[in-house]
Amino acid sequence: MQKGWRVMIDFITTPFSLEDLKKLKEAGSTSVVIGTPFFSVRNVHDFSVEELPLVKKECHKLGLRMYVLVNRFFVEEELEALREHLQRLKDLDVDGIYYGDEGVYQEAKALGIENRLIYNPDTLITNHSDVQYYLDEGISMVTISKEITLDEICAIAKKVQGECEVIIHGRLNMMHSKRNLLSNYFSFLGKEEDIRNKMDLYLMEEHRDEHMPIVEDETGTHVFTGFTLSSFDEIKDMVHAGIRHFRIDGIFHDADYVIEALKLYKSILQDEVKGREVFEAYKKKYEKDHVTHGFYYTKTSKVKEG
To answer: What parts of the sequence cross the membrane (predicted)?
Structure first.
């Protein structure tokens, strides 16, 4: 597949329409993440339940793996809808189901499809024991936390027996509240503003230039990092550590943005360009996005000494 890399790399991307699937495949994507109303949060596009068979048919024709987001946290009265949705995904024979709620695991296990689950609890997976525990439960893959350093990510991957995924590109979710924080804020101010499902709102601290996108939808309020994560200079280290699954999230952008990043990562792995040079050029091109290395070189936890 690649000059200097004999392993198969799974590039997981986010389509914004049915038509994007072919473009993503041609650019080198091997899997796509599909979101649906109600069951998915923080997805780049909602494909209706009725569209899922069309998406599956197109993915099958193109040779793309179809992963579906079921990453909402469900309350008791929503479990029946969850069961029906998981049965639907089983009947469609989807390749993977992202989840963060342990209830999804229990319902999927009852249907005999726990081996298609991908555990992605955002910040919680920070050591190899946790990764191995979930893999030993029979699920297919675990997403390593994006809030730990590159060394820590690689150390986890080297010790784990099974499949790991890393989110390597895009805005990162940093907070989710079930409260309607924006609506409550404007209500407190005595203002009526149409803020639901708006993708162009952001928070900005007084002494920082970075802006943090904030979205309020039917599941509450989502705040994203004030920077865009890139991994141009780090992807080779992660491949060396044994990671084979890399996700590029295009939220707040479009499919062309995803395709551009995907091609750059492939060029780096093919030794056509150097990761550091790509990072510097990309950072200048997307200056307003505050492109950084994320937490790769910054510990986000403190250890007591002495």
So the answer is: none
